[in-house]
Amino acid sequence: MALSAQAAYGMYPHDVALNQVVQTLNQSGFGKEDICMMVSPRHPIATIVRQANILNAEPEASAAATGLIGWLMKFGAVMIPTVGLFIRSQVFLQALVRKDSPNGYGNSKALVGLGFSEGDALRFEHQLGEAGVLVYVACPETSKMTGAVELLRRTGARETATLGKEETALEAVA
């Protein structure tokens, strides 16, 4: 299976409840394996992953880190530049990990691998350097792209759009 040439994405602020975004997508028929997230290294998730030391941590902190990492590993892919990469899907692995990239992932080349233009990829990389989360949903069926964009918008995305066969529809949310 190749990465769908069609997708929807939303750019979220750092304080979004990602579990609610994912739950809304799941309830609408999008599986976790179809979701890829790029999380800012300044995001609270990144902090927990960075500080996770399951062997030496307090039991409560260890359980929280283990639960979070287990949750992240259920997605098609989760990238946290300079922190970590979780990839469940071979398709996302091929799209995100680029031989021509010095870090392999976590930069604009990884986003280009998902189908973003170089300009958009650089813009999102810059935005993610500040804070936030980019949620990308692969949509093999064209008819699901519009619904995915609406779900992303309803769950608090500041910017939503589609990528794919149809002309890209970009909309900034106030």
Structure notes:
The protein has one domain. Helix content is 41%, strand content 19%. The protein has 7 helices and 7 strands, in the order E-H-E-H-H-E-E-H-H-H-E-H-E-E. The chain is α+β, with helices and mostly antiparallel strands.
Question: What attributes characterize this protein structure?
Answer:
174 residues; alpha+beta; 7 helices; disordered C terminus
Unreliable spans are: 166-174
Structural class: alpha+beta
Cα-atom radius of gyration:
15 Å
Biggest sheet: strands, sense, closure? 7 strands, mixed
Q: What string gives the helices and strands in order?
A: EHEHHEEHHHEHEE
Number of domains: 1
How many strand segments? 7
Q: Roughly what fraction of the amino acids lie in strands?
A: 15-25%
Mean pLDDT: 82
Separation of the first and last Cα atoms: 37 Å
In short:
This protein is an alpha+beta fold. It has helices at residues 18-27, 44-51, 59-72, 90-96, 108-113, 118-130, 142-154, and strands spanning 7-12, 35-39, 77-80, 84-87, 133-138, 159-163, 170-172. Strands 4-3-2-5-1-6-7 form a 7-stranded mixed sheet.
Helix and strand arrangement:
Layout: E1 7-12, H1 18-27, E2 35-39, H2 44-51, H3 59-72, E3 77-80, E4 84-87, H4 90-96, H5 108-113, H6 118-130, E5 133-138, H7 142-154, E6 159-163, E7 170-172
Parallel strand pairs: 2-3
Antiparallel strand pairs: 1-5, 1-6, 2-5, 3-4, 6-7
